[in-house]
Amino acid sequence: MISIDRTSAIPLSNQIETQLRQLVRDRIFAAGVKLPSIRQLASQLAVSTNTVVVAYDRLVAAGLIDSHGTSGFFACASKDSPSMPDAVALEAGEEQEPIWLAQQANDQRSGVLLASSGALPPTWLQDAVPASVVQRALAHSSAGMASRCPPQGLQPLREQIAMLMHSAGIAVDAGHLLTCFGGTHAIDLICRSFLQAGDTVLVEDPGYFLMFSRLLQDGIRLIPIRRGPDGLDLDELELACQEYRPRLLFMQTALHSPTGWSSSSANLHRVLNVAKQYGVLIAEDDVHGHFLPGHSTRLAALSGFDGVIYYSSFCKVLSPALRMGYIAAAPHHLKILMRTKIHSVMTTPALNEYVLLEVLKAGNWRKHLERLQRKIIQARTTCITQLSEAGMAFEHLGEVGLFLWGTIPDGVDMQLLLQDAYRNKILLVGGATFSAQQHHDRYLRFNVAFSQQTRLSEYLQQRFTTIAQAQQVGAKGFSLIN
Ligand SMILES: Cc1ncc(COP(=O)(O)O)c(C=O)c1O
User: Pocket residues for ligand 1 (CB within 6 Å)?
Assistant: First the structure.
Protein backbone atom coordinates (compact mmCIF):
# COMPACT_ATOMS: atom_id res chain seq x y z
CA MET A 1 0.00 0.00 0.00
CA ILE A 2 2.90 2.33 0.75
CA SER A 3 6.06 2.47 -1.34
CA ILE A 4 9.14 4.51 -0.77
CA ASP A 5 11.73 5.84 -3.16
CA ARG A 6 15.21 5.74 -1.67
CA THR A 7 16.70 7.71 -4.58
CA SER A 8 14.40 10.67 -3.93
CA ALA A 9 15.58 13.81 -2.08
CA ILE A 10 12.31 13.77 -0.12
CA PRO A 11 12.92 12.45 3.40
CA LEU A 12 11.48 8.96 4.02
CA SER A 13 9.24 10.18 6.86
CA ASN A 14 7.69 12.78 4.50
CA GLN A 15 7.06 10.10 1.84
CA ILE A 16 5.30 7.89 4.38
CA GLU A 17 3.31 10.78 5.82
CA THR A 18 2.10 11.93 2.37
CA GLN A 19 0.91 8.48 1.35
CA LEU A 20 -0.81 7.80 4.66
CA ARG A 21 -2.58 11.17 4.42
CA GLN A 22 -3.93 10.15 1.04
CA LEU A 23 -5.02 6.72 2.30
CA VAL A 24 -6.95 8.33 5.17
CA ARG A 25 -8.46 11.00 2.89
CA ASP A 26 -9.49 8.34 0.33
CA ARG A 27 -10.99 6.36 3.23
CA ILE A 28 -8.84 3.32 2.43
CA PHE A 29 -8.22 3.73 6.13
CA ALA A 30 -11.82 4.67 6.98
CA ALA A 31 -12.69 6.25 10.34
CA GLY A 32 -11.96 3.81 13.18
CA VAL A 33 -9.75 1.49 11.12
CA LYS A 34 -6.52 0.50 12.83
CA LEU A 35 -3.25 1.42 11.11
CA PRO A 36 -0.26 -0.93 11.08
CA SER A 37 1.77 -0.65 14.26
CA ILE A 38 4.96 1.40 14.14
CA ARG A 39 7.11 -1.76 14.27
CA GLN A 40 5.07 -3.52 11.58
CA LEU A 41 5.26 -0.63 9.14
CA ALA A 42 8.95 0.02 9.84
CA SER A 43 9.86 -3.59 9.16
CA GLN A 44 7.59 -3.79 6.10
CA LEU A 45 9.26 -0.70 4.56
CA ALA A 46 12.72 -1.52 5.91
CA VAL A 47 13.06 1.87 7.63
CA SER A 48 13.81 2.77 11.22
CA THR A 49 10.94 2.89 13.73
CA ASN A 50 11.88 6.52 14.33
CA THR A 51 11.06 7.38 10.69
CA VAL A 52 7.55 5.94 11.12
CA VAL A 53 7.13 7.67 14.51
CA VAL A 54 7.86 11.05 12.86
CA ALA A 55 5.24 10.40 10.15
CA TYR A 56 2.61 9.18 12.66
CA ASP A 57 3.25 12.14 14.99
CA ARG A 58 2.58 14.58 12.17
CA LEU A 59 -0.64 12.78 11.21
CA VAL A 60 -1.80 12.88 14.83
CA ALA A 61 -1.00 16.62 14.96
CA ALA A 62 -3.03 17.09 11.75
CA GLY A 63 -6.00 15.29 13.32
CA LEU A 64 -6.00 12.55 10.65
CA ILE A 65 -5.17 9.67 12.98
CA ASP A 66 -5.48 9.20 16.70
CA SER A 67 -3.31 7.34 19.19
CA HIS A 68 -5.24 4.97 21.52
CA GLY A 69 -2.29 4.26 23.82
CA THR A 70 -1.11 0.65 23.68
CA SER A 71 -3.98 -0.30 21.31
CA GLY A 72 -2.26 1.55 18.46
CA PHE A 73 -3.20 4.20 15.89
CA PHE A 74 -6.66 4.60 14.32
CA ALA A 75 -7.90 6.68 11.39
CA CYS A 76 -10.13 9.61 12.32
CA ALA A 77 -13.29 10.76 10.54
CA SER A 78 -12.35 12.88 7.55
CA LYS A 79 -12.42 16.59 8.29
CA ASP A 80 -13.00 17.43 4.64
CA SER A 81 -16.24 19.36 4.56
CA PRO A 82 -17.76 21.73 2.06
CA SER A 83 -15.95 25.04 2.39
CA MET A 84 -17.75 27.36 4.74
CA PRO A 85 -17.69 31.11 4.37
CA ASP A 86 -15.05 32.63 6.57
CA ALA A 87 -17.00 34.03 9.51
CA VAL A 88 -14.57 36.81 10.27
CA ALA A 89 -13.87 37.91 6.70
CA LEU A 90 -15.71 41.11 5.95
CA GLU A 91 -18.01 41.13 2.95
CA ALA A 92 -17.38 42.56 -0.48
CA GLY A 93 -19.15 45.89 -0.67
CA GLU A 94 -17.12 47.11 2.29
CA GLU A 95 -14.21 47.87 -0.03
CA GLN A 96 -13.73 51.39 1.21
CA GLU A 97 -14.04 50.49 4.88
CA PRO A 98 -10.76 50.93 6.83
CA ILE A 99 -10.77 47.52 8.51
CA TRP A 100 -11.63 45.75 5.26
CA LEU A 101 -8.76 47.53 3.52
CA ALA A 102 -6.30 46.61 6.26
CA GLN A 103 -7.50 43.02 6.02
CA GLN A 104 -6.96 42.95 2.24
CA ALA A 105 -3.46 44.37 2.55
CA ASN A 106 -2.45 41.50 4.82
CA ASP A 107 -4.57 38.68 3.40
CA GLN A 108 -4.16 39.23 -0.30
CA ARG A 109 -6.37 37.47 -2.82
CA SER A 110 -4.39 36.24 -5.77
CA GLY A 111 -4.84 38.23 -8.95
CA VAL A 112 -6.06 41.39 -7.20
CA LEU A 113 -4.02 44.44 -8.19
CA LEU A 114 -3.64 46.50 -5.01
CA ALA A 115 -3.31 49.78 -6.88
CA SER A 116 -4.05 51.92 -3.80
CA SER A 117 -2.17 49.78 -1.28
CA GLY A 118 -0.06 51.38 1.43
CA ALA A 119 2.67 48.75 1.24
CA LEU A 120 5.32 47.42 -1.14
CA PRO A 121 4.89 44.24 -3.19
CA PRO A 122 6.58 41.26 -1.44
CA THR A 123 9.06 40.88 -4.33
CA TRP A 124 10.52 44.29 -3.46
CA LEU A 125 11.37 43.18 0.07
CA GLN A 126 12.05 39.49 -0.11
CA ASP A 127 15.87 39.85 -0.11
CA ALA A 128 15.92 42.47 2.63
CA VAL A 129 16.24 39.97 5.50
CA PRO A 130 18.14 36.89 4.24
CA ALA A 131 17.59 33.56 6.01
CA SER A 132 21.25 33.62 7.13
CA VAL A 133 20.51 36.76 9.16
CA VAL A 134 17.68 34.97 10.96
CA GLN A 135 20.03 32.10 11.81
CA ARG A 136 22.73 34.49 12.98
CA ALA A 137 20.20 36.35 15.12
CA LEU A 138 19.16 33.13 16.82
CA ALA A 139 22.81 32.18 17.38
CA HIS A 140 23.62 35.62 18.87
CA SER A 141 20.51 35.75 21.04
CA SER A 142 20.99 35.41 24.79
CA ALA A 143 19.22 32.04 25.08
CA GLY A 144 17.98 31.04 21.64
CA MET A 145 14.24 30.48 21.57
CA ALA A 146 14.18 30.76 25.38
CA SER A 147 15.32 34.41 25.17
CA ARG A 148 13.20 37.12 26.73
CA CYS A 149 12.95 40.66 25.52
CA PRO A 150 13.00 43.58 27.96
CA PRO A 151 9.65 45.40 27.53
CA GLN A 152 11.41 48.60 26.47
CA GLY A 153 13.18 46.65 23.70
CA LEU A 154 16.70 45.16 23.48
CA GLN A 155 19.23 47.79 24.52
CA PRO A 156 21.61 47.18 21.54
CA LEU A 157 18.66 47.36 19.14
CA ARG A 158 17.53 50.66 20.62
CA GLU A 159 21.12 51.92 20.23
CA GLN A 160 21.05 50.98 16.54
CA ILE A 161 17.70 52.72 16.07
CA ALA A 162 19.02 55.81 17.86
CA MET A 163 21.96 55.92 15.40
CA LEU A 164 19.61 55.53 12.48
CA MET A 165 17.44 58.40 13.74
CA HIS A 166 20.56 60.47 14.31
CA SER A 167 21.55 60.02 10.68
CA ALA A 168 18.07 61.28 9.72
CA GLY A 169 18.70 64.41 11.79
CA ILE A 170 16.85 63.43 14.99
CA ALA A 171 19.02 63.39 18.11
CA VAL A 172 17.73 60.74 20.50
CA ASP A 173 19.17 58.55 23.21
CA ALA A 174 18.52 54.79 23.26
CA GLY A 175 16.92 55.28 26.68
CA HIS A 176 14.18 57.40 25.10
CA LEU A 177 13.08 54.66 22.71
CA LEU A 178 10.47 51.94 23.05
CA THR A 179 10.05 49.13 20.53
CA CYS A 180 6.61 48.07 19.34
CA PHE A 181 4.78 46.08 16.66
CA GLY A 182 4.88 48.76 13.95
CA GLY A 183 2.98 51.99 13.42
CA THR A 184 -0.42 50.47 14.15
CA HIS A 185 0.75 49.40 17.59
CA ALA A 186 2.33 52.81 18.24
CA ILE A 187 -1.01 54.49 17.47
CA ASP A 188 -2.80 52.04 19.73
CA LEU A 189 -0.36 52.61 22.60
CA ILE A 190 -0.69 56.39 22.28
CA CYS A 191 -4.51 56.14 22.28
CA ARG A 192 -4.57 53.86 25.31
CA SER A 193 -2.01 55.94 27.20
CA PHE A 194 -3.19 59.49 26.62
CA LEU A 195 -6.80 59.51 25.42
CA GLN A 196 -10.20 58.60 26.70
CA ALA A 197 -13.76 58.63 25.36
CA GLY A 198 -15.02 62.15 24.81
CA ASP A 199 -11.56 63.65 24.19
CA THR A 200 -11.02 65.76 21.10
CA VAL A 201 -8.17 64.95 18.70
CA LEU A 202 -7.02 66.90 15.65
CA VAL A 203 -6.34 64.83 12.54
CA GLU A 204 -5.17 65.67 9.05
CA ASP A 205 -7.64 65.90 6.20
CA PRO A 206 -6.85 63.86 4.18
CA GLY A 207 -5.00 61.50 6.49
CA TYR A 208 -4.48 57.91 7.58
CA PHE A 209 -7.85 56.12 7.63
CA LEU A 210 -7.04 53.29 10.03
CA MET A 211 -5.97 55.81 12.65
CA PHE A 212 -9.34 57.62 12.28
CA SER A 213 -11.11 54.31 12.74
CA ARG A 214 -8.99 53.48 15.81
CA LEU A 215 -9.84 56.83 17.43
CA LEU A 216 -13.55 56.59 16.64
CA GLN A 217 -13.65 53.12 18.17
CA ASP A 218 -12.66 54.70 21.50
CA GLY A 219 -15.34 57.41 21.29
CA ILE A 220 -12.83 60.15 20.48
CA ARG A 221 -14.11 63.24 18.69
CA LEU A 222 -12.13 63.97 15.51
CA ILE A 223 -11.57 67.50 14.24
CA PRO A 224 -10.11 67.45 10.71
CA ILE A 225 -7.50 70.07 9.76
CA ARG A 226 -6.85 70.62 6.05
CA ARG A 227 -3.53 69.25 4.87
CA GLY A 228 -1.95 71.01 1.89
CA PRO A 229 1.24 70.39 -0.11
CA ASP A 230 3.16 72.57 2.37
CA GLY A 231 1.74 71.06 5.57
CA LEU A 232 -1.22 71.68 7.89
CA ASP A 233 -3.47 74.70 7.34
CA LEU A 234 -2.22 76.91 10.17
CA ASP A 235 -5.30 79.11 10.43
CA GLU A 236 -7.57 76.08 10.73
CA LEU A 237 -5.19 74.61 13.29
CA GLU A 238 -5.22 77.69 15.47
CA LEU A 239 -9.01 78.11 15.25
CA ALA A 240 -9.55 74.44 16.15
CA CYS A 241 -7.21 74.77 19.13
CA GLN A 242 -9.10 77.84 20.35
CA GLU A 243 -12.53 76.34 19.81
CA TYR A 244 -12.13 72.70 20.82
CA ARG A 245 -9.15 72.65 23.22
CA PRO A 246 -7.96 69.32 21.77
CA ARG A 247 -5.92 66.87 23.74
CA LEU A 248 -3.73 65.66 20.89
CA LEU A 249 -2.81 66.16 17.23
CA PHE A 250 -1.85 63.21 15.02
CA MET A 251 0.18 64.24 11.98
CA GLN A 252 2.62 62.92 9.40
CA THR A 253 5.46 65.26 8.54
CA ALA A 254 7.27 63.52 5.66
CA LEU A 255 5.73 61.78 2.63
CA HIS A 256 2.26 62.05 4.05
CA SER A 257 -0.25 59.32 3.22
CA PRO A 258 -2.31 59.59 1.03
CA THR A 259 -0.86 62.64 -0.77
CA GLY A 260 2.90 61.98 -0.71
CA TRP A 261 3.52 65.61 0.36
CA SER A 262 6.07 66.67 3.00
CA SER A 263 5.66 69.61 5.38
CA SER A 264 8.03 72.56 5.04
CA SER A 265 10.26 73.49 7.99
CA ALA A 266 8.46 76.83 8.30
CA ASN A 267 5.11 75.08 8.55
CA LEU A 268 6.41 72.67 11.19
CA HIS A 269 7.83 75.51 13.30
CA ARG A 270 4.41 77.17 13.29
CA VAL A 271 2.61 73.91 14.10
CA LEU A 272 4.90 73.43 17.10
CA ASN A 273 4.32 76.98 18.33
CA VAL A 274 0.54 76.66 18.08
CA ALA A 275 0.56 73.26 19.79
CA LYS A 276 2.73 74.60 22.58
CA GLN A 277 0.55 77.68 23.04
CA TYR A 278 -2.59 75.55 23.49
CA GLY A 279 -0.97 72.65 25.32
CA VAL A 280 -1.70 70.12 22.56
CA LEU A 281 0.41 66.95 22.57
CA ILE A 282 1.61 65.97 19.04
CA ALA A 283 1.91 62.37 17.85
CA GLU A 284 4.30 62.54 14.88
CA ASP A 285 3.84 59.64 12.46
CA ASP A 286 7.00 58.99 10.42
CA VAL A 287 6.08 55.56 9.09
CA HIS A 288 6.68 56.66 5.47
CA GLY A 289 9.70 58.81 6.29
CA HIS A 290 12.20 56.06 5.43
CA PHE A 291 11.29 56.49 1.77
CA LEU A 292 12.58 60.06 1.83
CA PRO A 293 16.25 60.35 0.82
CA GLY A 294 18.51 62.64 2.87
CA HIS A 295 17.60 64.92 5.75
CA SER A 296 14.25 66.54 6.21
CA THR A 297 12.80 68.41 9.16
CA ARG A 298 10.83 66.42 11.70
CA LEU A 299 8.86 67.80 14.64
CA ALA A 300 10.81 65.51 16.94
CA ALA A 301 14.07 67.17 15.84
CA LEU A 302 12.71 70.70 16.22
CA SER A 303 11.10 70.11 19.59
CA GLY A 304 13.64 67.80 21.22
CA PHE A 305 10.56 65.68 22.14
CA ASP A 306 9.07 68.49 24.18
CA GLY A 307 5.35 67.90 23.58
CA VAL A 308 6.03 65.48 20.70
CA ILE A 309 5.80 61.70 20.63
CA TYR A 310 7.46 60.32 17.50
CA TYR A 311 6.92 56.87 15.97
CA SER A 312 8.06 54.98 12.91
CA SER A 313 8.13 51.44 11.62
CA PHE A 314 10.16 48.85 9.73
CA CYS A 315 7.05 47.04 8.45
CA LYS A 316 6.88 48.90 5.15
CA VAL A 317 10.54 49.32 4.31
CA LEU A 318 12.10 46.15 5.64
CA SER A 319 9.87 43.31 6.69
CA PRO A 320 6.14 43.00 7.31
CA ALA A 321 7.00 39.57 8.73
CA LEU A 322 8.99 41.08 11.61
CA ARG A 323 6.36 43.73 12.36
CA MET A 324 8.73 45.95 14.30
CA GLY A 325 8.39 49.66 14.98
CA TYR A 326 9.61 52.18 17.53
CA ILE A 327 8.44 55.13 19.56
CA ALA A 328 10.66 57.99 20.76
CA ALA A 329 9.45 60.31 23.49
CA ALA A 330 10.39 62.30 26.57
CA PRO A 331 10.96 60.06 29.63
CA HIS A 332 7.65 60.95 31.36
CA HIS A 333 5.70 60.01 28.22
CA LEU A 334 7.79 56.93 27.49
CA LYS A 335 7.21 55.56 30.97
CA ILE A 336 3.44 55.71 30.47
CA LEU A 337 3.73 54.12 27.04
CA MET A 338 5.83 51.28 28.39
CA ARG A 339 3.31 50.56 31.15
CA THR A 340 0.63 50.37 28.46
CA LYS A 341 2.79 48.07 26.34
CA ILE A 342 3.28 45.72 29.29
CA HIS A 343 -0.46 45.74 30.03
CA SER A 344 -1.40 44.96 26.45
CA VAL A 345 1.31 42.64 25.07
CA MET A 346 3.88 42.30 27.89
CA THR A 347 6.77 42.68 25.48
CA THR A 348 7.79 42.32 21.84
CA PRO A 349 9.26 39.01 20.63
CA ALA A 350 13.00 38.62 21.34
CA LEU A 351 13.52 36.74 18.07
CA ASN A 352 12.16 39.63 15.99
CA GLU A 353 14.29 42.11 17.88
CA TYR A 354 17.46 40.03 17.47
CA VAL A 355 16.76 39.68 13.74
CA LEU A 356 16.25 43.41 13.35
CA LEU A 357 19.40 44.04 15.36
CA GLU A 358 21.41 41.78 13.02
CA VAL A 359 20.03 43.56 9.95
CA LEU A 360 20.91 47.01 11.31
CA LYS A 361 24.33 45.87 12.59
CA ALA A 362 25.24 44.35 9.23
CA GLY A 363 25.17 47.87 7.77
CA ASN A 364 23.21 47.02 4.64
CA TRP A 365 20.24 49.10 5.75
CA ARG A 366 21.30 52.27 3.93
CA LYS A 367 22.00 50.40 0.69
CA HIS A 368 18.65 48.64 0.98
CA LEU A 369 16.85 51.98 1.43
CA GLU A 370 18.71 53.56 -1.48
CA ARG A 371 17.78 50.62 -3.73
CA LEU A 372 14.13 50.98 -2.75
CA GLN A 373 14.18 54.74 -3.22
CA ARG A 374 15.65 54.34 -6.74
CA LYS A 375 13.02 51.75 -7.69
CA ILE A 376 10.25 53.96 -6.36
CA ILE A 377 11.47 56.98 -8.33
CA GLN A 378 11.50 54.89 -11.53
CA ALA A 379 8.02 53.57 -10.79
CA ARG A 380 6.76 57.10 -10.13
CA THR A 381 7.93 58.31 -13.53
CA THR A 382 6.21 55.40 -15.27
CA CYS A 383 3.01 55.84 -13.26
CA ILE A 384 2.76 59.58 -13.77
CA THR A 385 3.04 59.15 -17.54
CA GLN A 386 0.67 56.19 -17.80
CA LEU A 387 -1.98 57.47 -15.41
CA SER A 388 -1.94 60.99 -16.85
CA GLU A 389 -2.40 59.53 -20.34
CA ALA A 390 -5.30 57.49 -18.98
CA GLY A 391 -7.03 60.68 -17.81
CA MET A 392 -5.96 61.20 -14.19
CA ALA A 393 -4.93 64.72 -13.15
CA PHE A 394 -2.16 65.35 -10.60
CA GLU A 395 -2.12 68.90 -9.34
CA HIS A 396 0.73 68.71 -6.80
CA LEU A 397 3.26 66.00 -7.36
CA GLY A 398 5.83 65.24 -4.71
CA GLU A 399 9.24 64.10 -5.97
CA VAL A 400 9.62 60.85 -4.08
CA GLY A 401 7.64 58.34 -2.05
CA LEU A 402 5.11 55.63 -2.72
CA PHE A 403 2.01 57.71 -3.36
CA LEU A 404 0.36 59.74 -6.09
CA TRP A 405 -2.81 61.62 -5.22
CA GLY A 406 -4.86 62.55 -8.25
CA THR A 407 -8.36 63.38 -9.42
CA ILE A 408 -10.58 61.45 -11.81
CA PRO A 409 -12.12 63.21 -14.84
CA ASP A 410 -15.37 65.14 -14.47
CA GLY A 411 -18.46 63.06 -15.05
CA VAL A 412 -17.03 59.80 -13.71
CA ASP A 413 -19.07 58.40 -10.84
CA MET A 414 -16.51 57.52 -8.16
CA GLN A 415 -18.63 54.89 -6.42
CA LEU A 416 -19.35 53.07 -9.67
CA LEU A 417 -15.68 53.26 -10.64
CA LEU A 418 -14.52 51.80 -7.31
CA GLN A 419 -17.04 48.96 -7.51
CA ASP A 420 -16.35 48.22 -11.16
CA ALA A 421 -12.57 48.26 -10.62
CA TYR A 422 -12.93 45.80 -7.77
CA ARG A 423 -15.01 43.49 -9.95
CA ASN A 424 -12.11 43.68 -12.39
CA LYS A 425 -9.72 42.73 -9.59
CA ILE A 426 -8.26 46.19 -9.15
CA LEU A 427 -8.47 47.57 -5.64
CA LEU A 428 -8.72 51.36 -5.71
CA VAL A 429 -9.31 53.46 -2.62
CA GLY A 430 -11.24 56.68 -3.06
CA GLY A 431 -10.32 59.98 -1.39
CA ALA A 432 -13.36 60.00 0.93
CA THR A 433 -11.91 57.01 2.81
CA PHE A 434 -8.91 59.17 3.75
CA SER A 435 -11.10 61.95 5.13
CA ALA A 436 -12.71 62.09 8.56
CA GLN A 437 -15.46 64.16 6.92
CA GLN A 438 -15.78 62.24 3.65
CA HIS A 439 -14.16 65.02 1.60
CA HIS A 440 -11.81 64.55 -1.37
CA ASP A 441 -14.29 62.32 -3.14
CA ARG A 442 -12.80 63.06 -6.60
CA TYR A 443 -9.39 61.75 -5.52
CA LEU A 444 -7.68 58.38 -5.74
CA ARG A 445 -4.51 57.28 -3.99
CA PHE A 446 -2.08 55.30 -6.14
CA ASN A 447 0.82 53.23 -4.88
CA VAL A 448 3.44 53.56 -7.62
CA ALA A 449 5.01 50.15 -6.95
CA PHE A 450 1.76 48.44 -7.98
CA SER A 451 0.24 51.08 -10.24
CA GLN A 452 2.96 50.93 -12.89
CA GLN A 453 1.27 47.76 -14.18
CA THR A 454 -0.25 48.65 -17.55
CA ARG A 455 -3.33 46.65 -16.60
CA LEU A 456 -4.36 49.57 -14.38
CA SER A 457 -3.77 52.43 -16.84
CA GLU A 458 -5.41 50.44 -19.65
CA TYR A 459 -8.43 49.77 -17.45
CA LEU A 460 -8.77 53.44 -16.42
CA GLN A 461 -8.24 54.72 -19.95
CA GLN A 462 -10.89 52.38 -21.32
CA ARG A 463 -13.41 53.33 -18.63
CA PHE A 464 -12.77 57.08 -18.84
CA THR A 465 -12.99 57.04 -22.66
CA THR A 466 -16.25 55.09 -22.64
CA ILE A 467 -17.77 57.53 -20.18
CA ALA A 468 -16.59 60.56 -22.16
CA GLN A 469 -18.06 59.08 -25.37
CA ALA A 470 -21.33 58.31 -23.63
CA GLN A 471 -21.50 61.87 -22.35
CA GLN A 472 -20.86 63.23 -25.84
CA VAL A 473 -23.78 61.34 -27.34
CA GLY A 474 -25.83 62.30 -24.29
CA ALA A 475 -26.56 58.70 -23.46
CA LYS A 476 -29.18 58.42 -20.75
CA GLY A 477 -28.95 55.84 -18.01
CA PHE A 478 -25.41 54.93 -19.04
CA SER A 479 -23.84 52.49 -16.68
CA LEU A 480 -20.10 52.25 -16.07
CA ILE A 481 -20.35 48.53 -16.05
CA ASN A 482 -20.56 47.26 -19.59
C1 LIG B 1 0.54 56.91 7.95
C2 LIG B 1 0.60 55.52 8.49
N3 LIG B 1 0.81 55.32 9.80
C4 LIG B 1 0.86 54.09 10.34
C5 LIG B 1 0.70 52.97 9.55
C6 LIG B 1 0.76 51.61 10.16
O7 LIG B 1 2.05 51.12 9.97
P8 LIG B 1 2.50 49.62 10.29
O9 LIG B 1 2.29 48.83 9.05
O10 LIG B 1 3.91 49.78 10.69
O11 LIG B 1 1.64 49.12 11.42
C12 LIG B 1 0.47 53.12 8.19
C13 LIG B 1 0.25 51.95 7.35
O14 LIG B 1 -0.17 52.00 6.23
C15 LIG B 1 0.43 54.43 7.64
O16 LIG B 1 0.22 54.62 6.33
Answer: 118, 182-184, 208, 252, 257, 285, 287, 313, 315-316, 325
Residue ranges of domains in the chain: 12-75, 91-120+367-481, 131-362
Ligand 1 atom closest to residue 119's alpha carbon, by position in its atom list: 14
pTM, full prediction: 0.85
Domain 91-120+367-481 = CATH 3.90.1150.10: yes
Best probe residue, ligand 1, of 208, 312, 324 (max atoms within 8 Å of C-beta): 208
The series of mean pLDDT values per 10 residues for the chain, 482 residues long, is: 88 93 88 93 94 93 88 81 48 69 78 93 92 94 94 98 93 97 98 98 97 96 97 98 98 96 96 98 97 89 96 97 97 98 97 96 90 95 97 91 96 91 92 92 96 97 88 59 44
Class for domain 12-75, per CATH?
mainly alpha
DSSP string, 138-191: HHHSSSGGG----TT--HHHHHHHHHHHHHTT----GGGEEEESHHHHHHHHHH
**Cα 447 to ligand 1 centre (Å):** 14
